[in-house]
Amino acid sequence: MNGSARDGAGVAPLCALDDVPDGGGLEAAATILVLRRGDDAWAYRNVCPHFSIPLNYEPDTFWAYGGELVMCAHHSAMFRFDDGVCVDGPCLGARLTPVPIRIENRRILIDDGGDTHD
Ligand code: FES
To answer: Which end of the chain is less enclosed by CB atoms within 10 A, N or C?
Structure first.
């Protein structure tokens, strides 16, 4: 999900865009995985749809490939950054649960659906 230039007053940021490794992932909150490619970022619940457990087993350690795919550390399911769909592995076609975000001033905010000020 791409960020937009909306006003985020009163919304706590998940993290700074630059905290997320370019082409990789960060555990921004206890159950939220943020993925980044350049100036784009996506957030998902860090719960693999295969066994309903986190994709990683070490804190902030996510196996990402080419800024396009992130792999579950348990049984190697591969999920696209862009839509969270599993494109290879034991839960083919399943999807990570998206967390709506927006990017404002290089901060990643949970998108609360508030008013836009574009
Ligand atoms: S728990 Fe993620 S692929 Fe099995």
So the answer is: C
Residue boundaries of the structural domains of the chain: 13-110
Write down the pTM of the prediction.
Answer: 0.84
pLDDT digits (tens, 9 = 90+) for 2-39: 433 344 455 678 899 999 999 999 998 778 999 999 99
CATH 2.102.10.10, applies to 13-110:
yes
Question: Which of 74, 78, 88, 97 maximizes ligand 1 atoms within 8 Å of its Cβ, making it the mutation to test the pocket?
Answer: 74
Using CA positions, which residue lies closest to atom 4 of ligand 1? 75
Q: Is the CB of 74 under 6 A from ligand 1?
A: yes
Extended strands (E) in the chain: 13-16, 25-29, 32-37, 40-45, 63-65, 69-71, 78-80, 86-88, 101-104, 107-110
